[in-house]
Amino acid sequence: MNSPGMVNNCPNPPNPYIIGSVIDDPDKFFGRESLFRFIEDNLSNREKVILLHGQRRIGKSSVLEQIPHKVAKNQFVFVNFDLHSYSNKPLSRLLHDLAQEISDQLVDHFYLAPDHLTPPSEHKLESDKAIFFNQFLPKVDRVLKGKNLVLLLDEFDVLTNHNPQSAKPIFFSYLADLIKQHKQLFVIAVVGRNLNDLPILLNVFGRSPYQEIGFLNDVSTRVLITRSAQGVLIYEPNAIKAIYHLSAGHPYFTQVLCFTLFSEARENQNWRISGLDVELIVNQAIENAQGGLAWLWDGLPIPERVVFSAVAEAQKIPISQQHQRVLEHPLSFLKRYGVIQTKSLYQAAKRLKEKGFIDDTECRVKVPLVRRWLVQYHPLRQEILALETLDQKQTDPIYQSANRRYQQGQIQTALVLYEEVLQVNPNYFTALLALAQGYLQVKNFRKAVELYRRAYQVKQVQSKEGLLRSLLNYGDELIEQQAFTTAKKPFQQVLKLEPDDRLARQKLEHIDAQIAQIEALTNK
What we know:
It is built from 25 helices and nine strands. With about 525 residues, the chain is α/β, with parallel strands linked by helices.
C-alpha cells in the first residue's frame, strides 16, 4: 500500500476529526466567516443582544467557543456560560454561578489574584438580587478598564421549558434590565429553536439581531475535509464530492464521515481516499454517529418522527407525473400505510421544515446520511405504531371499556366505543383491528374488509387472517346478491395475499361460469 501523506513516517497518526465534542481549538475550526463578521459588525454597532439559533449538532457551542478567537478583542472581553443545567434552579443560584464564572474567567484573562474579584454568595443574592448589578458589576468594570463584557450564553432557550420553580419566569427580564442599565454589558446567546417558537424570548429580545447557524457551503466543507488531515490524507475530487453529498455541509456529519475514513485509512495504511472508499464506509459512519443521531431523534415528538421516516421512505420511490420523476409528499405517502392525516401530522411536516431537517418541498431529508439512517433504523411501518400513544388519556379509558363490552358479548356497544376511540385518534391501529374483528363477527363483511385492509398496511401479521376471512365472506355475500363482476374483486385480492388459495380459485371459476351462463342466455 502506498502512503504518500504520512507525517514523520508515523504509521498511526492520531485522528484529527472530531465527533460530538465542542471544538475549542481555533486551528481545528473551519468556516463560518460570514457569521463571525455578522457578530463583529453588530458588536461594533453596539447591539446589546445578538441571538443565534441552529438545529442540534450543528456546532452552536463550538461557534460560541470560537467567538473570542474570531472577533476583534481590542474592545471586548468574552465570558462563556452554559445555561443547560439551570432549568430547575432558582435565579439566585444562576446569578451566583454566572458571577463566579465571570470572576474566574476575568482573573485568568487579566492574570489577577484568585480573590481579586469575589462573587456575591447565593444566600445574599436570594435576599437581594440587585447586588449583582449594584455591587458585583462595578467591580467587574474596574477590572475591565474601559473594555466591554460580552456574555456568551449557551442553551439560552432551556429556561423557556415549563417549570414554575426555575429561574425562567424572571431571568430574561432581569437580564434585559441589566443590559439596559449597564452600558458595558453585552450578550450573545444561542438557542436551539426558531425564535418564533419562543414567545418569552420574542417578547423580551424580539428586536435583537438574529442569525441562523446553518450548514457549511461547499467551499467551507472542502476546507474542513482536507485541511484537518493535510499532509496525511489525500482526497480525490470525487471523494470530496461524495462526502459533501452525504453530509450536505452539516459539520457534524462531515466530521463523522471523515473520522471514519481516517480510521479506515489508518487501519489499511492506504492514505488516498476515493469516492468508492466513501461509499464503503457509510454504514460504519452511521454507527459512529449513533450518539448524535439518537439525540436528534429523541428531541422529536412522535408525529415528527413518523413524518421524518415517511420522507426518508418516500425518497426511495419517486412517482411519475407528467413525464417527470417527482417525490411524493410524506402525508400522501402515509396514506399507503393506512394513516389518516391529522392536524398533528400536518403540523409535523411544517415543523421539520422549520427545523431544517427536511427541505422546503417537505419531500427530502436535507442530509442524505440521515436519510439512510432513518431507513435503516427507523422503518416507517415500525414508527407508525407509535401514533397509538397519542391522546392516550382520552383514548385508553374508552378502549378498555370497549374491550370489556366485547368480552361480555355486547358487540354492538363495543363497536360504538371502538369507533369513538378512532374519532379521537384515527391512527389507533389496535382499536382499528379490534373494530375490524367486531364487524367480521357481526357479519358486516364489507366494513370488515375496509378496516382490515387499512390495518394490514401496518399490522400485516395480526391482520392477515382476518382480512382473508373477510374477503372470502364478502365475496360469497356478493355472489348471493348475484353481483358476480363485483364479487371477483375480493377473491382476486385473496390470491394477491395467498396465491395458492384453492378456495378463492374455485370461487373465481364458479363466478366465471355464472357470468358465461348469463351471457349465453342474454345472447339467445
